Amino acid sequence: MTGMLLSLLPDGTLPVVLVFVGLALIVGLVSRQAAFSIVGCFVLFALLSPFLESLSNALPTGILIILFCIFALSIFKLVLSLLFGKGPTDHFLGQLMYGVFTLPFRLIGFLLRGGR
Questions:
Q1: By the 8 A CB rule, do 44 and 3 touch?
Q2: Among 10, 74, 107, 111, which one is least packed by beta carbons within 10 Å?
């Protein structure tokens, strides 16, 4: 989850975040393992960004739209789980997916009934 949040930061804020992680480690707000995982995510992003950029340029637009929707849903799930917890988030997303999957059938039924 940390990697997903860190990927949303602009490039100019990365040194600032690294400084704050170092300060938080010195003060004792963050454990050594958490600090190394945040720094590791930054290094991983720096190494993989050229490969991901070329991959995104090579993929068709339809697949990129599907990947963007999956990414947006995962960010949405992350925010909901941070706000409400795992149980309510899973219930909400289950109801949302049920509504998305039944929507075409409801529209067809609405059109066949004549809009009553």
A1: yes
A2: 10
